[in-house]
Amino acid sequence: MKVRLDVDTNTFVRFWFVVIAFGLVGLMIYSAxxxxxxxxxxxxxxxxxxxxxxxxxxxxxxxxxLGGTALAFTLVIxxxxxxxxxxxxxLVQQSAKFASTIPSIAENVSxxxxxxxxxxxxxxxxxxxxxxxxxxxxQSAKWATDAGSNIIGSVGSVxxxxxxxxxxxxxxxxxxxxGPMWMERIWSIYKDKQKMREHRRITSRVASVITGYITGQLxxxxxxxxxxxxxxxxxxxxxxxxxxxxxxxxxxxxxxxxIPMFGATLAGVLVxxxxxxxxxxxxxxxxxxxxxxxQIENNFxxxxxxxxxxELSALVVLVAVTIGIYVGGMLGGVIAIPIAGTVKVxxxxxxxxxxxxxxxxxxxxxxxxxxxxxxxxxxxxxKA
Length: 384
What we know:
Number of strands: 0
Number of helices: 12
Order of helices and strands: HHHHHHHHHHHH
Mean pLDDT: 76
Structural class: mainly alpha
Shape: elongated
Radius of gyration: 31 Å
Oligomer: single chain
Largest sheet: none
Low-confidence stretches: none
Distance between the termini: 54 Å
């Protein structure tokens, strides 16, 4: 049985026009992904700071939003400066310590593993093993010696990151300062007040979802970071590990915990590796603490703070985070969930409007049918 579909030329042209348009838009978005990631990060930072800025503006003389925004960003810059001051030196120290311990690790491997040595000697593999160990020693010593040149070689990447950070701060500052004014201008363009109220309600809902998620995630990450840093600081009194490792622990845990699903696990592994360079027992104890704390956070802390903020399934979260990391790296993974929550709001609003339209149409059909029945009854009564 053959089925023939008749499609007129206009429909065919419109279909391919829409396909090509979507393709071009997707290509443009992908080409400008780095700029869009910066703009998105600035927008989310502005939304996260909007509440504190509004509260600061209300208590300042003249209720100045400029003063509230400037004060909030001064605090942010002071926090970032403190992070650089307290975190970078311990990380450099641990990197140098790791580089200096590699030759001794290689030496221990060659002297302590007697069973492996017997196997090597029985199979005449000693020359190859000695050559490999010697090469490891030379390469690790060279790595430690060339650490300075490696740092200089990465200046370009660091400079690019600093420029991106500067743009995010400036853009979010301007968004906080001019955002309310621009929104009022947009609403004033509407001539249909009912449509304006509907769009304003949707915009408010999207802002609520994004702000709620960001503030909740920041709060959960901050609690986890302080808990991890405090535990490492306590361990420094019991085991021979530097107390200043608590600051890199706080930074790593806070930043990586912003990535949903697996960010906190990655942070726990990295902190465990840092502790392992100093004391294996301390690293094991921290691993136990991390597992216990994650159970507490996932079952009590996070649900209490993040309850009903975004309401996305685990599958949607995982897919969104995977796409976000692939497109925009770690920053893309951080903003993937708010974007997914925004898309969810738009889909729900579309389905709600469609359902309301279908209900209205059904009511009109029922009304017409009832009107027809009533008219028929009147006609019959007149004939009688």
